[in-house]
Amino acid sequence: MIEPLFSALAALLTPQHLGFMALGVSVGLVVGVLPGLGGIAGLALLLPFIYGMDQISALAMLIGLVAVIPTSDTFASVLMGIPGSSASQATVVDGFPLAKKGEAARALSAAFSASLIGGLFGALVLTAFVLVARPLILAFGSAELFMLTVFGLSMVGVLSGSNLAKGVAACGVGLAFGCIGAAPATGEYRMDFNALYLSDGIPLVIVGLGIFAIPEIVDLLRLRQTIAGGNPLGSGWLQGVRDTWANKWLALRCSGIGAIIGAIPGLGGSVVDWIAYGHVVQTSKDRSQFGKGDIRGVIAPESANNAKEGGGLVPTLLFGIPGSGAMAIFLAGMILVGLQPGPAMVGRNLDVTYTIVWSLALANVLGTAMCIALAPGIARLTTIRYMLIAPFMIMVIAFAAFQATRSLYDLVALLGVGVLGIFMKRFGWSRPAFLIGFVLALQAERYLYQAVQFAGWNFLTRPLVIGIVVLTVVSVWLGARKRPGEATLSINTEGSAEAARATVLRPQIVFTGLMLALFVFTFIEGVQNSFLGAVFPVGVGVVGGLAALAVLVLQLRGERAGTANFDSEANVDKSTGDPGPWPFVAWLVGFVGAVGIVGFLAGLFLFFVLFLRIAARCSWLQTGVLTVAAIAFILVFANAMNLVFPGGLLQAYFDLPWPFR
Amino acid sequence: MTLDRRTFVSGVAATAGLAASGALAKVSAQAASFEGKTVEWVIPFAEGGGSDVWARFMAPFLSKHLPGRPSVIIRNVPGGGSITGTNEFAARAKPDGLSFIGTSGSTQFPYLLGDPRVRYDYRDFEPVLVSPTGGVVYLPSKFGVASAKDLGKIKGQELVYGSQGATSLDLVPMLAFVVLGLNVRHVFGMRGRGEGRLAFERGEATIDYQTSSAYLTNVIPLVKKGDAVPLFSYGVLDAKGNVQRDPTFPDIPHFVEAYEMMNGKKPSGVAFNAYISFFGSGFAAQKPAMLPKGTPKPIVAAYRKAFADAVADPELQAKKDKVLGDYEQATGDDIEALYKVATSIEPDARAWVREFLTKNHNVRF
Questions:
Q1: Contact at 8 Å (CB) between A77 and A95?
Q2: Closest chain B residue to A48 measured between Cα atoms?
Q3: Which of B88, B94, B144 is nearest to B118 (CA)?
Q4: Measured CA angle at A652 (ends A646, A656), to 5 deg
């Protein structure tokens, strides 16, 4: 092990190989900084250049990109409140409140240092664990994977917001959204309205952006100021590093969690950050600051999401089973340079594996250094008037959304989920709970079905399954322990209920009623399937429906509704000229509508000019400069990725040259 | 063997037709030049899938051998299990030689099954390359089955197969098991054959297949350790439409041989015909590259020649084994017969499969 380890390092340490690694890191940095674009988009960007490269250069470049994304995606999560990629959704919960308090610098440096620890830990795990991982990975059958999804879902307990029933219902809404499309057991289509677009389900990137980014953008626009809200940026760079050092054991624990979850094929990387976040909340003594800007809420997910890459490479290399969408493209890259993953990766091809290990470690160091170097500049975005930032954000998330299937429907889905997100935020329905439900819905159903099919209900008696059940119970118990002086059992992901108590409850009653109707619909769509395709949606419909009903009953009690009463619009002071969210939603609808008529590029142009002139009241000069910059940026990106933009009616009737096509 | 005859006749007819038009096209092919142009290769799957890798591997060679050396870029149009992108291509692509599509078994299957969401017709397209692939079905050694000859021993026993879905590529092994009379329970929801192999290694699944390259790297070690036994390969189709041994696995009998070893006679009947159609579409002619409807003959001829030259390129031959395997790529005149097998099915065989899927696996059409 030692000899190949160092010969691999020696092979990697040539200017050419390091140059390609730095190239991968640089592309990963840019892609990660842009909200919504993650490893999949980044690797797809590099894939065309793989052909003809030598193996070490190609691997170093691809790994360089993979390694830096969970570090650089922190920028958007912390500074904008928009998940930079699906790996850092949980970072938003505490990272963004820190930025709003003017502690962006501290949050970023804590996140980067935690990422570095996680990344190096992941590389370490890959070095040693890959040699012995085979039997351990084979120990996780569908039964164990199902229990792990249940474990993931149990994190909703601490992320349910101010009211547990509402949290469960929110998770249920996520699960119901996850049921859209083909059933994993039978291939039957559910809740797809016979639309081909919905037959594959709604893409995760769209749900993640819609549920977090759109409500955040709209809220920030309403405030008509900067993200930092006039707070100074702060010079907490060193403070952030000290925070991580003070919580080094937490960072290591979460790295371990990330590496383990990443190494178990099938669970997917998108839930790692939430599990780490749930873990830190459950094990902390003072939970009062979580959701309001607790630095530990940044350190935990950031160490875990970097470590998961190292862990995730274990099954990718040993079995050729990609743990995530990004790993699938990485595998394709390996095959294109003539490497087929399999048992030989720890035998004949061990040097290749160790090249990957070193690339991962070095890229993590390089990526962290580059992020720290860029941070002060990028952090300054929070001091710019948000009216000028918003159109760029909308452009980038729209661009990221249509990476999913490259169609106009991607934008429509983004808008739809975004409106749902606005209401969930307003009425205190936990969006993290929703997202956990969505991410785990298909896995939960798939593995439950497979476990029962492979082993019958006896699967519940398997030792490892029982072990995970115990772990789940302990973790729920840790989270549910009420400590003296604590008002709620769960952290307030959407703000506190006390500050959002309404006297007129009708809007939230209507919303709860709609969610109840969604569960009824899920139930009805479910029962139409064969037994195996019906069990899961019917179960979601029943449990979610009961939770929504409980919320509804409480809300119908009017002023005595307690924590179920939550309407952040209730106490908005209308005299400050706050226009409410709807004018800005109308802008978004207008943008998507314009794309539907004249295509993406022309629609984007119109949106920029009109928004900057009318909403942001910019001068023509400023409008022109910003619009040209935006269009140029998007063209460079689209050109590099060989993209055709989503077309509208215009494109359906007229044949236009690229980029208007 | 009605099927062989049918394919043979159509193959001969097509070949004759092609030879005639080929003579004409040869002259005008030189007129078709793509100098300074960009050619789009539409792949209706996301980046990183098998079809994407296939296209990315072939693209530089195609670029090199097309007249005028245009740049060839891959355009991924994912969604709808590849139906979306193919529908869009069929509706929109212009027959100017600047865009063509590469599909896979998962695009052919819904077409063969008469899925109402399909709005493309393979008879409209102009095939310019057909890439075969293969796979090997294997069992755990604990059953004491040394080869297909002993399969009778486990005829009554229930085997478990980890499947990606009843209408996915795993329809081919499903039909193979039915023809052999094996009692197999299909557990769906596997995402890729890798997960099926993992279930096999864990002992959850008791019969599995892997595509050639995955078999070589991941199953051969199991066979060497004595944990797994190969039963049969799917085989390949020769120019006459007969099943032949897989060149990657010359020592493993192909499906038809395995059937004979087990039953002492050749397979026949509607179920076997259905199997052959889906086997052709899913393996022997899995990935066709096609120009859109109405593409002028000289352009088609230019593409066929370019692909033939690309496949003959020594550099491609040197590098192909990890991506294409040992399979002979159908180019030029060999295309028509294979393409026909991959994209057509007899009405009674189709009706039989539809009914089989509806009755056993609740598939609604």
A1: yes
A2: B56
A3: B88
A4: 75
The label of the residue with tokens 């397209």 reads B125
Amino acid at A245: W
- The CATH class of the B135-281 domain is alpha beta
DSSP state for residue A380 in the 8-state scheme: G
DSSP code string of A427-480: TT--HHHHHHHHHHHHHHHHHHHHHHHHHGGGGGGSHHHHHHHHHHHHHHHHHH
- Asked if residue B18 lies in contact with residue B300, where contact means CB atoms within 8 angstroms, the answer is no
> Could you say which of B83, B204, B364 has the minimum Cβ distance to residue A141?
B204
Instruction: Give the residue-averaged pLDDT of A378-398.
Output: 91
Residue A482 has pLDDT above 70, yes or no: no
Between CA A273 and CA B300 the distance in angstroms is 52
Please judge whether A336 and B189 are an interchain contact, meaning their C-beta atoms are less than 8 angstroms apart. Answer: no
For residues B204 and B160, the answer to whether their CB atoms sit within 8 Å is: yes
Spatial separation of the C-alpha atoms in residues B332 and B354, rounded to whole Å = 34
* Mean local confidence (pLDDT), A477-506: 72
- Structural domain spans, chain B: 2-132+285-350, 135-281
For residue B33, the 8-state DSSP code is -
Following DSSP, what letter does each residue of A88-104 receive, concatenated? Answer: GHHHHHHHHHHHHTT-H
Within 13 A of B38's CA, how many CA atoms are on the CB side? 9
| Predicted ipTM beyond 0.95 | no
- Tell me the β-bridge partners of A493: A495
Phi, psi (rounded to 5 degrees) for B264? 75, 5
User: What topology does CATH give the domain B2-132+285-350?
Assistant: D-Maltodextrin-Binding Protein; domain 2 (3.40.190)
Cβ-defined contact of B56 to A52 (cutoff 8 Å): no
Take residue A331 and report the two structure tokens written for it. 């595998």
Query: How far is residue A77's CA from residue A592's CA, in Å, rounded to a whole number?
Result: 24
Can you say how many angstroms the Cα of residue A246 is from the centroid of all Cα atoms in its chain?
A: 27
Mutation site for A-interface testing, chosen from B186, B200, B217 by largest number of A Cβ within 10 Å: B217
B76-80, B185-189, B301-305: which has the minimum mean pLDDT? B76-80
pLDDT of A454 strictly over 50: yes
* Interface contact A187-B167, CB threshold 8 A: yes
- Give A643's pLDDT tier (boundaries 50, 70, 90): confident
Do B47 and A321 count as a contact with CB atoms less than 8 A apart? no
d(CA B74, CA B54): 11
The residue type found at B351 is A
Helix (H) or strand (E) holding A75: helix A74-75
Per CB-CB distance under 8 Å, the chain B contacts of A48 are 56, 73-74
Domain locations along chain A: 2-477+490-558, 582-653
Question: At residue A182, what are phi and psi to the nearest 5 degrees?
Answer: -70, 135
How far does the CA of residue A388 sit from the closest CA of chain B (Å)? 33
d(CA A457, CA A471): 20
Choose from A40, A199, A264 for mutation: most chain B CBs within 10 A: A199
Contacts of residue B60, defined as CB under 8 A and 6 or more positions apart, other chains included, come to A51, A52, B72
Task: Tell me which chain A residue has its CA closest to the CA of residue B158.
Answer: A454
For residue A94, which phi and psi values (nearest 5 degrees)?
A: -110, -25
CB B241 within 8 A of CB B4: yes
- Count residue pairs from A and B with Cβ separation < 8 A: 156
